[in-house]
Design goal:
single chain; mainly alpha; two-stranded parallel sheet; two-stranded antiparallel sheet; 9 helices; 6 strands; 62% helix; globular
């Protein structure tokens, strides 16, 4: 068993506190930005465009992540409406973050005349790496509650400031399962980024691979069931895999999406 006795609160000043969770989210944004900029340069996308995109995507992503989480735990937040603004305590749904970021990104690309697929492929490796870093914050926070476990790597939360549902109980380290899966997905996307793939393929693979992992890992989490014994995240994961995996294969089988016609295809996508 692994005991986690770290205080999730890094610094407290009066009524205000800084949690490790917030620090990890900030670190995830910094590292993700660095990785994204490196890939953007390789693909010929201007740094100014990347920074402008990030500004809108981060804001929209945070709003979307919180919205999805609040909907998933609606009964609690209807009874505690002020808790909706307590971002520092965790509760950001990754699918909501991606949905919000993609919506902002699509609007931005259309406005700037940038290839949506190309920018999405730049963002995909950075996004999954950022998620992995963010899960470190979840591990310290204790806000991803795993199912009971007697395995040698089961975790036990002991600090009173932890957001764990119950102290002293061994559970599956579900946040760490996802951290490891995210790093694996990052390695795959980083390896594939230099391949001659149709524009948008890396983002589609990100969706498919992440969703496969999230679907199975959620069986080791305590989540609210919404349909057929599955949680909100699992239902979304199934839909995402069924849509994105075939689409990733399809766009790379169409001849005009490769070689010299790729640029023309991207311009068509941007124009809508």
């Amino acid at each position: 068993m692994i005991t986690i006795g770290i205080d999730p609160v890094l610094i407290s000043i009066g009524q205000y506190s800084l949690r490790w969770y917030s620090v990890m989210i900030a670190l995830a944004i910094v590292v993700g930005t660095f990785v994204g900029l490196r890939e953007a340069r390789r693909r010929g996308i201007a740094e100014d465009d990347v920074y402008s995109f990030l500004t809108w995507a981060i804001i929209a992503g945070i709003v979307g992540a919180r919205l999805f989480h609040v909907v998933d735990k609606l009964d609690y937040y209807l009874s505690n409406p002020m808790a909706i603004l307590a971002f520092q305590e965790g509760g950001l749904a990754i699918y909501g973050a991606v949905a919000g970021g993609l919506l902002a990104g699509a609007i931005f690309c259309r406005y700037r005349g940038i290839s949506i697929g190309k920018l999405a492929d730049v963002a995909a490796p950075a996004l999954i790496l950022g998620q992995a870093i963010g899960r470190i914050g979840c591990t310290i926070n204790g806000d991803v509650w795993g199912t009971p476990s007697n395995l040698p790597w089961a975790v036990i939360y002991t600090h009173p400031n932890s957001l764990a549902q119950e102290l002293g109980v061994p559970i599956h380290p579900a946040a760490d399962y996802e951290l490891l899966w995210d790093l694996l997905v990052f390695g795959i996307l980083w390896k594939l980024r230099t391949r001659n793939l149709a524009s948008g393929t890396l983002m589609l693979l990100y969706f498919a691979l992440y969703s496969i992992g999230r679907f199975w890992i959620t069986f080791f989490r305590v989540d609210t069931e919404v349909a057929f014994g599955l949680s909100q995240a699992q239902v979304i994961a199934l839909i995402v895999v069924l849509v994105t995996a075939p689409l990733a294969v399809l766009i790379n089988r169409i001849p005009r999406l490769n070689g010299q016609d790729q640029k023309g295809y991207e311009q068509t996508i941007v124009r809508g």
